[in-house]
Amino acid sequence: MTGPAGRAAAVDMLTLTDYAGRARTMLPASVWDFIEGGAGEERTLAANRAAFDRVRLFPRALSGTDRPSLTATVLGRTWRTPLAVAPMAYHRLVHPAGEVATARAAGAAGVPLVVSTFASRTFEDIEAAAGGPLWLQVYCFRDRSLTRDLVARAESAGFEALVLTVDAPILGSRHRDLRNRFRLPKDIEPVNLPDGEYSSPGDHARAEFATALDWSVVEWLRGVSSLPVLVKGVLTASDARLALSSGAAGIVVSNHGGRQLDGAPATLEVLPEVAAAVAGACPVLLDSGVRRGADVLAALASGADGVLVGRPVLHGLAVAREVGAQHVLDILASELADAMVLTGTSSADDVAPALLGPRPRPRRRARPPRPRSPPTTCGRQTCTAVCGTRCSTR
Question: Which tens digit of pLDDT belongs to each residue from 270-291?
Fold first, then answer.
């Protein structure tokens, strides 16, 4: 749906929430849950959004800002906006065109696409459709030769960077998928991997993912490819420093969209300490929970060089193929530009922590007062606590 019909479908969508609502009506319930669900009780999934909801941005009056520059430079490449499409598996679940349509959308929006190890279109087809940078998201398998061959194929296809996912030695317990007994449709598979049994993503991960990796895997990846390696899944300053020392060219602050460890902190909460630990030594990106242009501005003010957007792009793809996916990215860019004008920010490079107001914390319930013990009379006085030996011998 790339012609007038596609544009007509997109016109009715004003926000990313609009796209989510329309996509939900168009997708099978089990597919919707596979895309939207988080791990466990989905506390981290909710925390990602709640962290952005608590942000307050300070407007500036009479700042003279007119048309802010949204461009960002990451790993030597200039992006039209500080956005990229996050890695997500099996785009064909929401539209038959799959990652090919997503690549066209990202290229038209002037932003990179991070292609999943579990893409449902070939690297070569994605590259042929792309009009912008492509990065490969990497899961490391027990059989290192599978990972090495995957990386070599992506590099040959013109991909520009590797994004190693480090927070998924196994897949988190995703209750929605378990309740739905989710299985991939027979016609959808990871076409860039060898033939195998992939119908249950969780079962495949338990059988094939390398669970005992350490930081030497970054050096190994750098040894089998000339591409820069970014590490995705960092939530602490200590891990950020380890990533740097291992040779990482960039860091993605991510909790996998709330799909791994339920109870992990929201990415926006930990971003400032990770950015401070890196201290400009490499790009720092953020994903998980971005749904508004103001969220992008909050992430930049908290230390990010850019953000990755995931689920909303699939919503756009489901609603109106590449037109919808591009529209999602354009909405974010337009909202970001508006927020920059209203906060007197002329350039994405000029975003500073001073933009952020205090983040109100959820109110805690007051604890009921502890009941007092009844007065107890000892030989010489009345006490407000049970008397002990010392009191009784006064």
Answer: 999 999 999 999 999 999 999 9
SS (H, E, C) the chain: CCCHHHHHHHHCCCCHHHHHHHHHHHCCHHHHHHHHCCCCCCHHHHHHHHHHHCCCECCCCCCCCCCCECCEEECCEEECCCEEECCCCCHHHCCCCHHHHHHHHHHHHCCCEEECCCCCCCHHHHHHHCCCCEEEEECCECCHHHHHHHHHHHHHCCCCEEEEECCCCCCCCCHHHHHHCCCCCCCCCCCCCCCCCCCCHHHHHHHHECCCCCCHHHHHHHHHCCCCEEEEEECCHHHHHHHHHCCCCEEEECCHHHCCCCCCCCHHHHHHHHHHHHCCCCCEEECCCCCCHHHHHHHHHCCCCEEEECHHHHHHHHHHHHHHHHHHHHHHHHHHHHHHHHCCCCEHHHCCHHHECCCCCCCCCCCCCCCCCCCEECCCCEECCCCCHHHHCC
Tell me if the pTM is above 0.85: yes
User: 122 near 191, Cβ under 8 Å?
Assistant: yes
pLDDT in tens, 171-210: 999 999 999 999 999 999 999 999 999 999 999 999 999 9
Identify the active-site residue in 91, 204, 256, 315: 256
pLDDT at 392: 45
The pair of structure tokens assigned to 53 is 């909801």
Q: How do strand 376-377 and strand 382-383 relate by DSSP bridges? A: antiparallel
Instruction: Please write the tens of the pLDDT for every residue from 25-37.
Output: 999 999 999 999 9
**Which has the closest alpha carbon to 278: 318, 312, 244?**
244
Q: For residue 368, how many other CB atoms are within 10 A of its CB?
A: 6
Q: Does 373 have pLDDT greater than 70?
A: no
Which residue would you say has higher pLDDT here, 388 or 221?
221
Give the model's pLDDT for residue 205: 93
- Decide if 253 contacts 35 (C-beta within 8 A): no
- 256 among known catalytic residues: yes
267-278 and 237-245 helices cross at what angle (nearest 10)?
Answer: 40
